[in-house]
Design goal:
Rossmann fold, alpha/beta, 304 residues, 3-stranded antiparallel beta sheet, binds glutamic acid, 32% helix
């Protein structure tokens, strides 16, 4: 029987995992679209996970706003969106496993104390196995990984990949590295397509996969959309929210940033047609590792 285009006929599972620290901006739309096109062209699933485990950084209403913007742009997720704030039991279970298998230590050092250590030196907590109250739980990153292959950025290396990162923070919150790996494993993610700002976080995540004895997904880090001063366009530097009144134009421009050359006529068609064109034209190998925009009109449109 012939299969309908873009149905789930493969084992591919991808995801978009925004933190609700503000509304979606053009950079996060590019990331969302890249992971969506890759999942749909692979005839797999595209999941959305709201990474709301850091209440101090959360902006009220941002989760709903992000989901609404995705939906307006026709980026319809498969399954129900997952909220990290509801998954504490999973994170606790993963931490308990790491504690039991001697992969962790309690560290009550202050930031200043850690910063004062000589490079590549561990603090004294690392050699102690005792429980400490109000302490961070750090991962003993002993078999540190120095290089990995990224589907877009190619060979990635890291000189300081041995950092003993936290899996539970001193303030009691679960750390991003732990939550993201726990969820990607639990959700069966086969490929992580996300922004290149997380290129180095991948080293810590790979170390966790190794400890859990779980095969990691493959990674593809998309080019970052930069602000006029050359920093990553982000919610923290107040990148403007995506304008839902011009979804076709937003998708059209986001595709150009991902190495696609959509015909101009697509700007006046429907969201569905633009996305279908993108799914058919998509080529991960054609995505540039970096992008620079020289078009002043587009720069002004998205404050980039
Ligand atoms: N929540 C992270 C962010 O918004 C992305 C995490 C990931 O894709 O692994 O920057």
């Amino acid at each position: 029987m012939p299969t309908l285009p873009h149905q789930h006929t493969s084992n591919y599972v991808g995801r978009f995992a925004p933190s609700p620290s503000g509304p979606l901006h053009f950079g996060s739309l590019v990331t969302a679209l890249g992971s969506y096109l890759q999942a749909k062209q692979s005839q797999g699933k595209w999941l959305v996970r709201i990474e709301d485990i850091d209440p101090p950084r959360e902006v009220a209403g941002a989760s709903e706003q992000i989901l609404n913007t995705l939906a307006q742009h026709g980026l319809n997720w498969d399954d129900e969106p997952v909220f990290q704030s509801q998954r504490s039991a999973l994170y606790r279970q993963k931490i308990a496993w790491l504690l039991e298998h001697n992969y962790t230590y309690f560290c009550d050092c202050t930031r200043a104390e850690l910063a004062a250590l000589a490079p590549k030196t561990l603090c004294c907590c690392a050699t102690q196995s005792n429980f400490k109250k109000h302490a961070a739980i750090r991962f003993k990153n002993s078999k540190h990984i120095k290089t990995y292959f990224d589907e877009i950025q190619q060979e990635v290396s890291h000189r300081d990949s041995e950092v003993q990162f936290a899996i539970k923070r001193k303030d009691g919150l679960f750390a991003y590295q732990l939550a993201v790996v726990a969820d990607d494993i639990a959700q069966g993610i086969t490929q992580v397509v996300r922004g290149a700002d997380l290129l180095h976080a991948t080293f810590y995540q790979l170390a966790l996969y190794q400890a859990f004895g779980h095969k990691p997904p493959s990674f593809a880090h998309l080019p970052l959309v930069l602000s006029p001063n050359g920093s990553k366009l982000s919610k923290q530097n107040h990148a403007p929210a995506i304008d839902n009144q011009q979804v076709e134009l937003n998708l059209f421009h986001a595709m150009c940033f991902l190495g696609l050359s959509p015909p101009k006529s697509l700007q006046t068609t429907t969201v569905k047609e633009i996305l279908n064109w993108g799914i058919n034209a998509w080529q991960l190998s054609a995505v540039p590792p970096e992008v620079a925009c020289n078009d002043n009109r587009i720069k002004a449109l998205y404050s980039i």
